[in-house]
Amino acid sequence: MFKKILIANRGEIAIRVARACRELNIKTVGIYSSVDKESLHLRYCDEAVDIGEPAPLASYLNIKRILGAARETGVEAIHPGYGFLAENPEFAKACETARVVFIGPSSRALSLVGDKVASRITARGVGAPIIPGMEMVGVNNADFQNKAQEVGYPVLIKASMGGGGKGIRIVRNDGELLESVEAGRREAKSAFGDESVYLEKYIERPRHVEFQVLRDSFGNVVHLGERECSIQRRHQKIIEETPSPALTPELREKMGETAKNIIAAVDYTNAGTVEFLLDADKKFFFLEVNARVQVEHPITELVTGLDIVKRQIMIASGMKLDVKQEQVVQRGHAIEARIYAEDAENGFLPSPGVILYLKEPQGPGIRVDSGIYQGWNVPPHYDPILAKLIVYDESRQGAITRLISALKDYTILGIRSNLGFLKRIAESSQFKDGALHTHFIDENTDALMPRHAMLEMALVAVALKSTGSAAVPATMSGIGSLTSTPWQELGEWELGAS
Amino acid sequence: MGIRCVMKIIIAYEGKPYTIEMVKDGSKNKVTINGDRSFNIDSYDVRSNSLTFVCDGKMSSAFIAGDRERTYIAIDGEYYVFDQVKGTKGTTADQKGDSVASPMPGLLVKIPVSPGDKVQNGTTLAIVEAMKMQNELHSPRDGVVKRINFKEGDQVDAFVPIVELEAQSNAIASLPPN
Question: B10 contacts in A (CB within 8 Å)?
């Protein structure tokens, strides 16, 4: 087992990895950009290295700096987390050259599956159904125009090196096509350091169902069941659950075996996720392989009782997978809600800034993987994810009520977050019915907007807070003490006695 | 003998002003919103960031925090952000529609226009990226680009004009983008 590893990430996932390391008795090195000096993840690491300016390309995507930090601190391995360099074959290759273990698949396997176009060809090779579209990255405008005509609108423009929903655009007609290609390239360049994009047919109202797979260097492979991630905004998952309300045991086995075959075909080692779209007729299509630990991995951990991050580290250190397929049992139901710094009621506009107040929920079956603390200034340079709330209960219904209750207990003030929005999704009858698809949010926008039922009570609360404590008597001396509270700045008080 | 004390406060929610009046008459408290909706407060307890109150017989708990410009409230899992009434911050096109600014701090990734360019209502004047989301800032009206205050790659603050348009005496009233 490793003695010391570097965590090439930030936020909640860096903390998740650091926790696994503590439990495995491994020392950790955290990295930070200049704007992340005060970030929570560093408090969980044994050492911390400054890797540069805030812009991702200068810091968390800067291979040279990160490998330099690895060398200086004498680590044996690097855990990339998700996002940033997690699926960059160049980085995996550079680690291999520097003789530092990359906790993930080999650079060769990463190239094959991390490249969305190459992975479609791989999947087809093992008999997995694929979505019609490009079999190579689009180079010139004509490539995109011709393929769009061939498969028919609507189409998707996707980042070839992408993941996490970044760099994906829906195009509904010829007029929008080229502008979307350019925008997709910019976003891909910024998010992944590679501007390649490709085009595929857009499947209407599918479910997003993915399979968690683990494979060791001896060829042992298991899948840990599925995660349904159909609740998405801007093509990014915000609520995930397992088991999927849509799968039968037969379909689960068929999709799970397909996932394992795709992983084995490219000699992929470590944790990986095979994503599928499931259409209304329960026909599934291979979407892509996510060659990293997923944001939503905790729900699988809760229903299988298996620690995915620890197994990533164990597999990378050369250990044999300690679990067989028949030992994997899904028990109960788990749901994750991603807490984002964004104004969900206003186009999901990012909302960086200072967290003035934070209260995280607790209780049976509640797990919070958080990267924030009260008083921290959330920087604008990175993904808006703040934390993840994961709930577990015996049944789907139980997990939903637990989620609603935990969301009501979760308070973040000072920046805008999607907490209220997540709660309204969980409360909606459409969600409870399990009739999920990836356009759920777009199609239920009205039902998910705030009903302002509590607006008057909120205004009452402002008034009460502004007067200070009830213990303050309504005399001029009592009122006088108010001038020192920040609540004076709410507006102008008119004081009068009558 | 009770002292009657009347306090009035005006705050804005989503751009709309609300007048809240609170009357303390001896041990009785009454809150009136916009002069017509009244609530009797049976009791209340205020701590640093939390308060509990019984309003017309029903108990509520709220969490509250504020800075100079805004007050944030969470109540029963719903969130409300109230703005101080003074000032007009919050729009991305200024009052006369002579400039555009980003509603959030971020990286200026693209300015597809140059000074002297003729632009139309809705033309993209700048693209700002924050938290990996790109936000296009559109011209609030037809006009001519007068000045560009930043260059691509600059970090911009919220509500600071990025692209300015030539003043137009007969400018049509502006609307913020989105």
Answer: 491-492
Summarize pLDDT for A261-295 with one digit per residue, the tens: 999 999 999 999 999 999 888 999 999 999 999 99
Catalytic residue among A292, A311, A338, A367: A292
pLDDT tens digits, one per residue of B37-66: 999 999 999 888 999 999 999 999 999 999
- Chain B residues touching A469 at Cβ < 8 A: 45-46
**Which of B9, B84, B127 has the CB atom closest to A463's CB atom?**
B9
Q: What are phi and psi of B7, to 5 degrees?
A: -125, 140
The answer to whether A234 contacts B133, with C-beta atoms less than 8 Å apart, is: yes
Which chain B residues touch A475 with a CB distance below 8 Å?
3, 5
Can you give the pTM of this predicted structure?
0.84
- For residue A151, give Cα distances in angstroms to A119, A141, A146, A310, B80: 19, 16, 9, 43, 45
Are B5 and A496 in contact (CB < 8 Å)?
yes
Instruction: Round to the nearest angstrom and report the end-to-end CA distance of chain B.
Output: 56
**Is residue A476 predicted with pLDDT exceeding 60?**
no
Is the predicted ipTM greater than 0.85, yes or no?
Answer: no
Q: Which residue has the tokens 């989503």?
A: B14
Residues in chain B: 178
- The single-letter code of the amino acid at B79 is Y
Cβ atoms of B97 and B119 closer than 8 Å: no
Output phi, psi for A246, to 5 deg: -95, -15
Distance (Å) from the alpha carbon of B95 to chain A's nearest alpha carbon: 21
The contacts found for A396-402 with CB under 8 angstroms, 24 or more apart, are: A396/A241, A396/A245, A396/A333, A396/A434, A397/A432, A398/A333, A399/A241, A399/A332, A399/A333, A399/A334, A399/A335, A399/A365, A400/A335, A400/A426, A400/A431, A400/A432, A402/A365, A402/A366
* Residue written as token pair 């959330």: A378
Contact B37 A456 (CB under 8 A): yes
